[in-house]
Design brief:
- The protein is of the alpha/beta class.
- It has two domains: 269 residues, FAD/NAD(P)-binding domain (3-Layer(bba) Sandwich); 105 residues.
- It has ten helices and 17 strands.
- The strands form five sheets. Strands 1, 2, 3, 4, 5, 6 and 17 form a seven-stranded mixed beta sheet that branches. Strands 11-12-8-13 form a four-stranded antiparallel beta sheet, with helices on one face. It has a two-stranded antiparallel sheet with strand order 7-14.
- The model has no long low-confidence stretch (mean pLDDT 96).
- Bound molecules: flavin-adenine dinucleotide (FAD).
- The site of flavin-adenine dinucleotide has 40 residues, from helix 1, strand 4 and helix 9.
- Flavin-adenine dinucleotide binds next to helix 1, strand 4 and helix 9.
Length: 427
């Protein structure tokens, strides 16, 4: 391959105790939590929005649950008060405003429109971040960096070990461009919220009709009411066999999903009661990427841990609850290894601190969907409430490590737990 050589001198634009890359549910929670403990904290985000998939991905609602901790605070501060019975349904604008307010209250230095390009390494440990923006290339110094980019971009560049997708063949869950429909008659509208939800409509069963009439890999119906009259969120576009760490695949998925949208709208007009006069209102600013890198941490969470509702001694996330939400890696619908309605484990599980600590790189913590877990375990903890509380734990750990001048791996989990208990998190 042809190469070029660059000799670079990069200005240091800021020095922080805690740097967080990525402002999704995990990154915002991490930055707010570190800031609240008095750490000089900076949050770097490539887009112009905070909230990650929850906002720029035009997400419908918070699925799964946790008890205690920052997720409940986010919900309290961002839900649509005009729809008190739909607290978990996301109002994108209210959520962004609430998150911005929390960041400002915690004195977090927010840098939007800034791409976390690579870590600054010193003696094999992460000591900061190189960012790229309209201001050019700049460096930010950190005691501890939290990688909450979803894909673990910084951790990967730092040399932290990872595997892509599922263990046997690296296949990753499909991507989806979420979109909203207007003009829906809510009094009659159907809203199948899982692949396993079957709804009889005048021409047949809606999931079967979708498989017959929508071109693969589209072919399932997932519709969610918003808190706004006549507006419904659709999780129905689908692009398989793509890698979210490859910009060409991201481009391909965006184009493919955009092409599916018109056909989906026409399908709903044809078959779905209440959607006869619906129209395409808005699509997400970013393609939704469900799964990419799984990092190797000091511990790797497994599906067995989740099914046994294990309480780890070094718990930092507790009472986490969701199902195995694995979308079919080969087409529409649920994967053979996925389980939504029939998920039988009613008790919440815990996530140990060790899943947030990369096995071999210091100065770095993982937060959100890129922590150390198997493909199947990830399909559960990737739910946003759980990611937010993972971020909270990572932010607290980063602040405590920097205050004590120790490596995150040397921080006793009991010290994180003391702070978490004050936030209402109990095993
Ligand atoms: C289509 C789809 C539907 C889903 N449905 C639901 C649902 O209904 N309910 C639910 O609870 N969960 C749902 N999920 C899962 C959930 O949205 C994600 O797993 C969760 O948002 C992950 O949180 P995170 O903070 O780890 O990452 P993200 O939300 O992905 O946030 C990562 C942030 O980092 C930024 N970033 C990435 N790389 C860089 C970089 N190099 N430099 C700077 N910034 C960077 C991104 O712009 C983004 O803002 C869905 C996911 C998808 C894709």
């Amino acid at each position: 391959m042809k190469t070029i050589q660059e000799v670079l001198t990069t200005p240091v634009a800021g020095e922080y105790d805690v740097l967080v890359a990525g402002a999704g549910p995990a990154g915002v929670a991490a930055a707010v939590s570190a800031g609240r403990l008095g750490a000089r904290t900076c949050l770097v985000e490539q887009s112009g929005m905070v909230g990650g998939v929850a906002t720029s991905g035009l997400m419908s609602h918070w699925t799964g649950n946790t008890r205690g901790g920052i997720y409940e605070e986010i919900l309290d501060r961002s839900h649509d008060e005009n729809a008190p019975n739909m607290r978990k349904v996301i109002h994108t604008e209210k959520l962004q405003n609430a998150l911005l307010e929390m960041l400002q209250e915690a004195n977090v230095d927010l840098r939007l429109y800034s791409f976390a390009a690579k870590p600054v390494m010193e003696n094999g440990a992460v000591a900061g971040l190189v960012i790229e923006s309209k201001a050019g290339r700049q460096a930010l110094a950190s005691q501890v960096l939290v990688d909450a980019t979803g894909d673990g971009d910084v951790a990967a560049r730092a040399g932290a070990a990872f595997a892509l997708g599922r263990e046997e063949d690296s296949s990753m869950q499909p991507m989806t461009l979420m979109f909203r429909l207007g003009g829906v008659d809510m009094s009659r509208a159907i809203h199948p919220g899982s692949f396993e939800t079957k709804v009889e409509v005048p021409h047949g069963e809606i999931q079967a009709l979708a498989r017959q009439e929508l071109a693969a890999p589209a072919g399932h119906v997932l519709l969610y009411f918003t808190t706004l009259s006549g507006i419904v969120t659709a999780n129905m576009t689908n692009c398989i066999q793509v890698d979210g760490t490859n910009p060409q695949d991201l481009t391909k998925a965006t184009i493919q999903c955009r092409k599916q949208m018109e056909a989906i709208v026409a399908f709903l007009q044809r078959h779905a009661p209440g959607y006869e006069h619906c129209y395409l209102l808005q699509s997400a600013a970013q393609i939704g990427v469900r799964e990419t890198r799984h990092f190797k941490g000091l511990y790797t969470l497994t599906s067995e841990d989740i099914l046994a509702a294990r309480v780890f001694p070094d718990w930092v996330v507790t009472k986490a609850h969701f199902n195995f939400d694995i979308h079919n890696v080969q087409g529409a619908g649920l994967d053979a290894n996925g389980c939504q309605h029939k998920f039988s484990q009613p008790r919440g599980y815990t996530i140990p601190y060790r899943c947030l600590v990369p096995e071999s790189i210091d100065g770095l913590l993982l937060a959100g969907r890129n922590i150390s877990g198997t493909h199947q375990a990830h399909s559960n903890f990737r739910a946003m409430p759980i990611c937010a509380n993972i971020g909270q734990a990572a932010g607290i750990a980063a602040a405590l490590s920097s205050q004590k001048g120790i490596r995150p791996r040397d921080l006793p989990a009991s010290e994180i737990q003391t702070v978490l208990r004050q936030c209402g998190v109990e095993p």
